[in-house]
Amino acid sequence: MPIPSVFYTAQQVKQGEVLAAKSTGLEMFSLMERAGQAAFTIAFAQYPGTHHWLVCCGGGNNGGDGYIVACLAKSMGVHVTVWQHGDPEKLKGDALSAYYHWLDHGGEVYPFDDVIPDDVDLIIDGLLGTGLSGTVRERIFDLIKLINASEVPVVAIDVPSGLCANTGAVLGIAVKANHTISFIGLKQGLVTGQARNYVGQLHFAGLGVEESFEQQNTPTLRSISPKSIKSILAQREACAHKGLYGKALLIGGNEGMGGAMILAAQACARVGCGLTASLLHSSNVSSILVSVPEVMSAGWDDEQRIQQRIEWSNVVAIGPGLGRDSTSERLFCQIQDLSVNKVVDADALYFLAKNPNFDANRIITPHPAEAARLLGVEIAIIEADRFKAIKELQKKFGGVVVLKGAGTLVSDGNEIYVCLAGNPGMASGGMGDVLTGVITSLLAQGLSCFESAKLGVIIHSKAADLNAKEKGERGMLASDLLSHLRSLVN
């Protein structure tokens, strides 16, 4: 079934599945059977020509699901080998029942081996479920390492073993799955940060209790819908004129960094801002005028001109190619005191870290390294729990925070949204400058800070996906997104 647009913590799902099953009159073992059936269906559909499955079972209900998968695969004529971590007779509750169910079907269980049989052509990961809190222990660590080195495709049940279902962090080591099927309520840790390297294609099965579960639980995370582009950006009136669609001022482009401002300004204009202006180092004025003559560009060495442009604009963005010299810092301080809506990125975030303040009329767009500087911590702390990081950033700096990276997060302090679009081709210089231009344009056109940030992120990522579909991910340039931006907003 389609991936839901809402996500929950592992604790919500663990507690909620019991209540949901009870409210629908379903026994918990029946729920386990449905989970195993769903996992088998995905595995068999994705790998129909496989003949020997290795099912790796752990000590909890995740392992119980694995036994159900093993039974179903065996009934379809697949040769199945089951490896169990620990003594299977010490399993409890429904997992123990699933183990006996496997034995009743003539199945056998073996301890982990140091070598995966040569003819195994699919691995089912049922080792560690959502309850993992500490780092992966040594014996399972070795098995996960063996699985990842095998190059055999993997289908993970509920969550790839070793991945934190709440944060997306790898707890020492994690199974690198080709497909992951999650049940009842999607876990928030499956869609951001390191999880994007381990989950593979994400699937969902509600097991017939998802409606009851959703009624009883409030999501902790929502995905940004690509459909929002069309629903939020209304058709323009026939008598529209440029004055109706905002006046954006972008400040940056220090000496030797004019390209960043060219990218940001082009993106701002292409997404539909009525009037776009830029202030940058005088050495870059000619190049931006040649590249984007539609953008009113001038040097930032005239204080009167700066003040006039600030008063003219209804949104100001600062950061792309700004640099970190005394002029850059002076401009940042001048902008920081304004009550107008602002977008702050790149080098401007360096100065914000030095001079922190709370501003409800601001969007900040840090990548993990910039977020770490803003919070005074190591990058690893940010990536260990991106949800915690974005909450702390918003609490400290106010407004709206866009925490960039795989599975970009957007928060206004009340809600958190995740972007499921995007691809590795975006790991190239200038992508952040384009995003700044996109968000600035939407903000200038009258959208709120939160809507501008969410919509800007999805437009930016979808543009990259369209370009990757046409020409591939490797070698993608930030400027390659520009034509797609225009298509998407139309």
Automatic annotation (TrEMBL):
Protein name as annotated: Bifunctional NAD(P)H-hydrate repair enzyme
Record EC number: 4.2.1.136, 5.1.99.6
NCBIfam families with a match to the protein in the record: yjeF_cterm, yjeF_nterm
Highest rank taxon of the organism: Bacteria
Annotated positions binding K(+): 62, 125, 161
Ranges where the YjeF C-terminal domain occurs: 225-490
Subunit structure, as described in the record: Homotetramer.
